[in-house]
Amino acid sequence: MFSLLRLLQILFVAMRYRLDELVLSSINHPIAFTLLRIVRFGRPPRRPRGERLRLALEALGPIYIKFGQVLSTRRDLIPVDVADELALLQDRVPPFPSEQAAATVEAALGASPHELFKHFDVDPVASASVAQVHFAVMHDGREVAVKILRPGMRHAMERDLQLMRVMAGLVQRLAADVRRLKPRQVVDEFDTYLHDELDLLREAANCSQLRRNFGPGSGREQLLIVPEVMWDYCAVNVFTMERMRGIPVSHIERLRAAGINLPELARSGVEIFFSQVFSDGFFHADMHPGNIYVSDQPETLGRYIAMDFGIVGTLSEFDKNYLAQNFLAFFQRDYRRVAELHIESGWAPATTRVEQLEGAVRAVCEPYFDRPLSEISLGQVLMRLFQTSRRFNVEIQPQLVLLQKTLLNVEGMGRELDPDLDLWKTAKPYLERWMHQRVGLQGLRDRLNREAGQWSQILPQIPRLIYTNLNRPDAETISALELQRLRQAQTQTNRLLMVIAAVLAIGVGVAVWAINGM
Predict the structure, then answer these.
(1) Phi-psi group of 41: left, alpha or beta (phi > 0 → left; psi -120 to 50 → alpha; rest → beta)
(2) DSSP-assigned states of every residue in 285-308
(3) Is CATH 1.20.1560.10 the classification given to domain 92-159+195-243?
(4) CA of 201: how far to CAs of 136, 147, 196, 197, 506, in Å?
(5) Phi and psi dihedrals of 119, rounded to 5?
(6) Which DSSP letter does residue 229 get?
(7) How many Å apart are CA 333 and CA 341, to the nearest integer?
(8) 10-residue block means of pLDDT along the chain (518 residues)?
(9) Is 286 a catalytic residue?
């Protein structure tokens, strides 16, 4: 019964904001055209389609607001005007009562917040679509922020996701144009994001990992501050972290008044992003201005502060290598190499003609080089490349779309701080250095160090296995079991001999390289 009422509410909101017109206009069928004329009553909607969709999602509540935020990142799937409007969705939703917040903490941690903490602010400092934050002081005097999940979110999520799947399936069957946007795939992706965001222990783990990546010994501790996780005060629906003090990165005048060097701050943001992507393969994927602060404390003045770790992206070594080579080829205007990389990676079919894909990539990229470098959006270029790739049946991986969305955020944030920011000039040396580290002597040394543990187990066995292999008896004079063991030993020996040959070959190659470089 409740699901039926929710469905009726959704239909009412859809009619109020004329989403019926949005759907029917995408259906190429005489019946749909007739229905469209009826629902319009002879008048088209007065507001743009993206604005109407945004207002409808806001009216439907937190789950749909979050859905719109996730949908806005899929610029490879949805029209640009709709994506731009959905990007305006904010997390400013009414807070839930402090009594409910206290009850959630008590149920999760076994005691009321007033017992757990020396002081607990009953009024939240921030209220978002899935959680709200209260400041507190621990008994040892440390100041913390307590993030509490909205009560009933999981039940509401499952209920609304089921309705979303039904509507996505219906729209996908009726509208050919909408089918191209893969509504079922989008809902499944949202399901994954939402489940991750509703598990605050997972968010705490993301925070802890990012803090370790930028911690002492990383060489990057002067770039980014990440709060400490208070693990004894965390649960699936409660996340307690060190309280951070700073200025929102979007408050430009306050940053200037604090004496912060804005151009340097903009360059640091680019370095933080690329170091996360290519050094760690683990990046904060929700870097909009509301989640990024800048420290105004004397001892850490001008350092970025990361907040909200519900959405992170991960990249494999294959992804990182592919991206770095694509970026560098693009910097050098080597469009053929960009096309070859698509085919070599297996993302474009092996039957794709390099010349055709090269021409398509050139058509995307070349116009950008007629502009000043400071006006070129690397995120927009990447998005256009993804869109072009889709014409050649390339399936773009979700983690790369997430990266492209984050890159757009970083660019926008950087150029807000410094309108003359040249992202290309800032990023290119970092990428070249990273590629050199991978293919140069340092990269070889790092890989040898990683393999050293395995080799230390294998190398001591080599003399015995070689002796066994050279002195094995005739197969006719031993039992089947002994013969099987000897054959296994021979196979292992052959493999080890291949390892030795490879090591010798690498050693000779390095020696020749070193001699030639002198």
Answers:
(1) left
(2) S---GGGEEE--SGGGTT-EEE--
(3) no
(4) 19, 11, 9, 9, 45
(5) -145, 140
(6) B
(7) 14
(8) 69 77 55 52 70 86 78 67 77 82 95 95 88 95 95 81 77 60 70 81 95 89 94 96 92 92 90 87 82 91 91 83 78 84 77 87 77 64 70 68 76 82 75 70 63 63 62 54 61 60 53 47
(9) yes
Bridge partners, residue 224, by sequence: 304
Residues recorded for the chain: 518
Q: Name the maximum alpha-carbon separation found in the chain.
A: 97
Residues 322, 328 contacting (CB under 8 angstroms): no
Query: What is the residue whose two structure tokens read 């290309």?
Result: 424
> What does the alpha-carbon distance between residue 135 and residue 143 come to, in Å, rounded to a whole number?
8
How far is Cα 428 from Cα 413, in angstroms, rounded to an integer?
A: 19
Place of tokens 């694509």: 326
Could you state, in order of their start, the residue ranges of all structural domains in the chain?
2-90, 92-159+195-243, 246-439, 444-517
Task: Measure the CA angle with vertex 128, ends 122 and 131; round to 5°.
Answer: 65
From 160, 286, 296, 319, the catalytic residue: 286
Which residue in the block uniquely carries the two structure tokens 């990676």? 345
Kindly report, residue by residue over 364-407, the tens digit of the pLDDT. Answer: 778 776 665 566 666 667 667 766 766 777 666 666 767 777 87
Take residue 156 and report the two structure tokens written for it. 């509401």
Burial, 201: exposed, middle or buried (Cβ in 10 Å; 0-12, 13-18, 19+)? middle
Model pLDDT for residues 117-175, shown as the tens digit of each residue:
999 999 999 888 788 999 999 999 999 999 999 888 877 777 788 777 877 777 667 65
Residues 297/270, Cβ–Cβ less than 8 Å: no
Token digits of residue 374:
């400071």
8 Å CB contact between 150 and 166: no
Distance separating the N- and C-terminal Cα atoms of the chain: 80
Among 250, 225, 409, CA closest to 305:
225
- Assigned token pair, 98: 């402090």
Residue with structure tokens 């980014």? 224
**Residue 309 DSSP label:** -
CA distances from 264 to 57, 267, 376 (A): 38, 5, 19
